[in-house]
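Session log. Operator J.P. requested a structure for one protein chain; no other inputs attached. Running the standard single-chain path with token output.
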Amino acid sequence: MTRQRLRQDLARIRAAALVAVDPYKAVTRHLTLTEQGLVICQGAGRTLVLPQSTGRRVMLAVGKAAPAMAAAMIDRLGGLLSEGLVVTKYGHLESYGVTFAGFVRVIEAGHPVPDAAGVMAAHEAMALLRSLGPEDTAFVLLSGGASALLPAPVSGVTLSELQRTTELLLRAGATIIELNTVRKHLSQLKGGQMAKLAHPARVLSFILSDVVGDRLDVIASGPTAPDPTTFVQALEVLKRYHLMQQVPDSIVAHLRAGAQGLWPETPKPGDPLFDRVTNLIVGSNLHASRAAVEEARALGYHSLLLTTFVEGEAREISKVAVALAKGEHFRNHPVPRPACLVWGGETTVTVRGQGKGGRNQELALAAALGLEGLEDVALLALATDGTDGPTDAAGAVVDGNTVQRALAKGWDCRAALDDNNAYPVLEAAGDLLRLGPTGTNVNDLLVLLVA
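Structure written below.
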């Protein structure tokens, strides 16, 4: 099987995976409007029927997939919605190509580092939620990026200080769980506080998960879910990454005050305010991974889904990819060739160099060094939202000749990796993957083909 054929097959597998987590379909397949009311499919044969009421129905959609999810909600509910707010990352509204009626306000804001537009959006969201009464319903649509897009810093902390803290945690290689543990205790919306603002209204959250394990308290920093984390744990994250002396003094002061009980904790499990809150995951990395496996089988590959819980340093995870590739190449294991191995999750990168790239590009370049010389292998490393790190690439497709192609263009792959500079190397090798914003976001997908 040629290198070109492997890449063509990876493109088809990638497309099938993204279709499976299309945010519009993810929302519509869980909603049906009947004469009895709104029927919400909760999975495993369980449904929730929301009867007709005289109260207001408002929509708050936040995240990279917010435009598509909002369009689905509007199409399903027709004229039942009285007001809506859509907050998404710059460029994502245009990429999806959707327009909204006058009752829906749209704000584009910064991600992954929050900006002033996000602060404005957060204040509008808070005002909308506070306006609700006990007969009203809030449809909250959450997807990856929502945490950064609605910063709402606490009193005494400025946006620039929140930006600085986010940047330091990202560069230190903090996981999304660690990052959100800190952000939840520096925000007026995160960690169940969105549900608290809406109380006593009914809250129905439709969630497209971009978090390993689909933890409700972690996705988008859990604005409508109970928060099990504490101020003490937020301080421990900063200490773990030796950031106590680097983050702004106001951040440390606020977290310490909270740890001493001077600020109220975020709402915890068992709080009665969650009695009228329903959180429903409508799409996840598992959906995308299963679709990738099914498409690979249709293409004639013996396919296996390994896990959707991949975490860790990108270049360390690349060693696993190389080991699996060699297992197939030399031992025809763990499945017979032609083989397709799929796994998903989200890696991190501890930035030590000055280069340009993202976690999937770093993983792909590191894997390319280990795959050098293997002619029958190709690896896809994909950020499902189409944005891998602060670049215009979604990731990369590498093979056993990537290193040689880069070398022919004057690039030393190992030196580039040491400088966290995967982007220009992969571009020179012809392996960079540019998709533009995909409209969805369910973590990263890794697909290995061995002919």
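Operator note: The two ends are 6 Å apart (CA to CA).
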